[in-house]
Each structure stands twice: as C-alpha cells, then as structure tokens.
Write a structure and sequence with these properties.
Layout: H1 2-21, E1 29-31, E2 34-38, E3 43-48, E4 55-60, E5 69-70, E6 78-81, E7 84-87, E8 96-102, E9 105-106, E10 110-115, H2 120-162
Parallel strand pairs: 2-10
Antiparallel strand pairs: 1-3, 3-7, 4-5, 4-8, 6-7, 8-9, 8-10
C-alpha cells in the first residue's frame, strides 16, 4: 500500500511539472519606455526577448488604440535592424506609441513625443510678446474701470442737480409791497377805482 501511494505521488509531481514547463509566456521588454525629442534628431528603440524570435514593429497614435500601423510601411525615415527600431530625422508626425510584436505577443510600447526645434531668440521673442500682451490687458482693464467710475460719478452729479432744493426768494423777486401807515397789511381801498373810470391801460 505504501508503494502505491508513493507511485501516485510521483505521477502527480510529473503532471504538475509538465503543466508548468509546457510553454512559458513570452516576456517582451522595450527600452526606453518614453522618448522626448526635438525634430531632426534620431531615436532608437530596443525590443528585448529571450531566445530567437521574429520581430515586427507597429505604430499607433495612442497607447490604447485598436488599429496599429505596421512599420516601416510608408515612412522612409524608419529602419528596423533585428530587434532595434531606428527613427532617423524625427518629424512632428512621428509622435505616437511604437509597439514590438514577437511570436504574436505584444510589447508594452514606447511613447515618442516630438517637439518643434526652436532657438533661444525665438523663445525670448515669444516671452516678450506674452509679457507685452499681459501689460496691455492690464492697462485696458484699468481704462475700463476708470471709465465706469467716471460714468457713475457723472450720473450721481446729474441726479443731484435734478433734485436741487429751489430758493424761495426768487419767486417774489422784483415785487415791492407798499405799506400804508405802517400797517401790516396793505390798504387796498386806496387803489380802488371809481365806477366808470377807465383803466389807464385801456
């Protein structure tokens, strides 16, 4: 009985060993994982796989893109030498993600970002232009605020002049009240005309 258990144990170990050693998953390493470069410079990407395999290179606009364009394809500035992809004379349209494929296994991808090559004088010009625009915007804002404040002040002055308190003296200006005998009220009978007399203005 002991020998039977021992034989079953050996068979079980053999099956486990065969299932593990059947075909290990192919691991692909791409170096570097990201490239930032300016136009006109060369870039090289390596695909590292153990053993001898057939390499294929693909390009995609984004990392999770479903359609990948095979390389070199229509691009004349791209060369493949065994496990290395060479991009000569980088252009802006070379930006994207480059994938290595070996035995139907995809690599993790290498992101390439290409920037325009600019000189120091161009950078200084753009900086000065940006600073000048910021100063102009600040001055324009100050002029707008000053115009609003002046307009508000004019409106306040106009409303004050409309509701100005009238002077009471100017109503009776030029009229002189004659007093008769020092009385408080004017004696009107003095000025009364006799019936039938004509008024001087008639």
């Amino acid at each position: 009985m002991f020998w039977l258990l021992l034989l079953a144990g050996y068979c079980g170990l053999a099956l486990v060993n065969n299932s593990v050693a059947q075909k290990p998953a192919l691991q692909i390493i791409q170096k570097p994982r990201y490239y930032g470069a300016i136009t006109g410079f060369p870039v090289s990407i390596q695909c590292l796989v153990t053993g001898s395999v057939k390499y294929q290179w693909y390009w995609a606009a984004q990392h999770n893109a479903s359609n990948k364009e095979p390389l070199p394809g229509r691009r004349e500035n791209i060369q493949t030498v065994e496990n290395t992809l060479h991009i000569l004379n980088l252009r802006l349209e070379d930006s994207g993600v480059y994938f290595c494929k070996a035995n139907d296994t995809w690599g993790p991808g290498t992101g390439v970002k290409v920037a325009r090559n600019i000189t120091v004088t161009q950078v200084q010009y753009r900086t000065k232009l940006k600073d000048g625009l910021m100063i102009f915007q600040g001055l324009l804002l100050a002029v707008c605020i000053a115009a609003l404040l002046l307009r508000k002040q004019d409106l306040l002055e106009n409303t004050d002049s409309i509701y100005e308190e009238p002077e009471t003296d100017h109503i009776y200006e030029g009229l002189a009240i004659e007093t008769c005998g020092g009385g408080l009220y004017e004696e009107l009978s003095v000025y009364a005309q006799v019936d039938g007399a004509e008024a001087p203005w008639e």
